C-alpha cells in the first residue's frame, strides 16, 4: 500500500487513498500535473455556491449518488447513473479524483467507496474537510468550465468487491469475524450484531484540526478496540454511510481484510437477523 512502518505501526497514511491538504494544494499549482486531478465537492449545491469551494472543484451533491430505491446493492445509485454524474462533471476514468465535504469526510468517503465500486481506479479522500482547507488555503465561488465526457463505468465483480450481503454476513458470524459497529453508543445499545465491538467513526477525527489523527495514534486507537490486521473485519452501521469513512481509513492504514456490509443494520433487522442489546463493554 506504500505505507512506511516502524515497529509494526504505520506512521503515514497511504496517499493513494487519503491525501493531505498540502498535497492537493501543490497539485493545484502544477498546471501540467499528470494524471489530471479532479476535485469533487459533495456538499449541497447551496453550500458549494453560497459558501465557496476549493478552486477547480465540481459539485456532485451527496443525494445525487445515494439512491434509496435500491437500484443496486444497498443504496448505491447504479453504475450507469453514477457514470452520468461523472460525465456531466467532466471526469474521465483515468483522472485522479479527490473528494471532500464539510462533515469530516463522511459524505465524501461514501463518494470514494461508490467510485471504487464502479471501477474508478484512482479516487482519494481529502484529509479534513472544507473548513479544514479554508484555514490555510484559498477558496473561490467561481464555477469551473468543464467539458462533459463519455464516462464508461467498469463495476467490480462480486469477488473483487468489499461489499458483502446478508448471507455473507451470516457466514462471517459463524466464522468468528470481528464485526465493527461504527455508530453512536445509544444506537449500539439499542441493537447490534452479535459480538460486535463499538467504534464510533468520529473517534478517528482530531476535533481541533478537523483532520484525521496521526497514523500511529489511529493504530493504537484501533488496537484498543481489538481491531487488528490479523482479524477478518466486517463493518456496518445503519445505512452504510458512516462505515464508508471507517473503510477508507482502514484501507489507508493498510488493513486488507475488511468487508463492507452495504445493507447494514437496516437490512439485518428487516430480515430478522439476530441482534444483541446493551452498552458496549468497558
Automatic annotation (TrEMBL):
Keywords: Pyruvate, Repeat, Transferase. Coiled coil: none annotated. Transmembrane segments: none annotated. Gene3D superfamilies: Rhodanese-like domain. InterPro entries: Rhodanese-like_dom, Rhodanese-like_dom_sf, Thiosulfate_sulfurtransferase, Thiosulphate_STrfase_CS. SMART domains: RHOD. GO terms for molecular function: thiosulfate-cyanide sulfurtransferase activity. Residues 33-142, 173-277 form the Rhodanese domain. The keyword Transferase applies. This is Thiosulfate/3-mercaptopyruvate sulfurtransferase. It comes from Halopiger aswanensis. The lineage of its organism: Archaea, Methanobacteriati, Methanobacteriota, Stenosarchaea group, Halobacteria.
Amino acid at each position: 500500500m506504500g505505507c512506511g512502518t516502524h515497529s509494526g505501526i504505520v506512521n503515514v497514511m497511504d496517499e493513494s487513498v487519503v491525501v493531505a491538504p498540502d498535497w492537493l494544494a501543490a497539485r493545484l499549482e502544477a498546471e501540467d500535473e499528470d494524471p489530471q486531478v479532479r476535485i469533487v465537492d459533495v456538499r449541497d449545491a447551496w453550500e458549494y455556491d453560497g459558501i465557496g469551494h476549493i478552486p477547480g472543484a465540481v459539485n456532485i451533491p451527496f443525494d445525487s449518488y445515494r439512491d434509496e430505491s435500491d437500484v443496486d446493492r444497498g443504496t448505491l445509485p447504479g453504475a450507469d447513473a453514477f457514470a452520468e454524474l461523472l460525465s456531466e462533471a467532466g471526469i474521465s476514468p483515468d483522472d485522479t479524483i479527490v473528494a471532500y465535504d464539510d462533515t469530516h469526510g463522511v459524505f465524501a468517503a461514501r463518494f470514494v467507496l461508490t467510485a471504487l465500486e464502479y471501477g474508478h481506479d484512482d479516487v482519494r479522500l481529502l484529509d479534513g474537510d472544507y473548513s479544514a482547507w479554508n484555514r490555510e488555503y484559498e477558496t473561490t465561488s467561481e464555477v469551473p468550465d468543464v467539458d462533459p465526457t463519455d464516462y464508461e463505468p467498469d463495476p467490480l465483480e462480486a469477488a473483487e468487491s468489499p461489499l458483502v450481503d446478508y448471507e455473507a454476513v451470516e457466514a462471517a458470524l459463524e466464522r468468528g469475524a470481528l464485526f465493527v459497529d461504527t455508530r453512536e453508543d445509544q444506537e449500539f445499545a439499542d441493537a447490534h450484531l452479535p459480538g460486535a465491538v463499538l467504534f464510533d467513526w468520529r473517534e478517528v477525527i482530531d476535533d481541533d484540526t478537523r483532520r484525521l489523527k496521526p497514523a500511529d495514534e489511529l493504530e493504537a486507537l484501533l488496537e484498543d478496540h481489538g481491531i487488528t490486521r490479523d482479524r477478518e473485519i466486517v463493518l456496518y452501521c445503519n445505512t452504510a454511510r458512516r462505515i464508508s469513512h471507517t473503510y477508507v481509513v482502514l484501507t489507508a492504514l493498510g488493513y486488507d481484510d475488511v468487508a463492507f456490509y452495504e445493507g447494514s443494520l437496516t437490512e439485518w433487522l428487516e430480515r430478522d437477523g439476530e441482534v444483541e442489546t446493551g452498552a458496549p463493554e468497558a
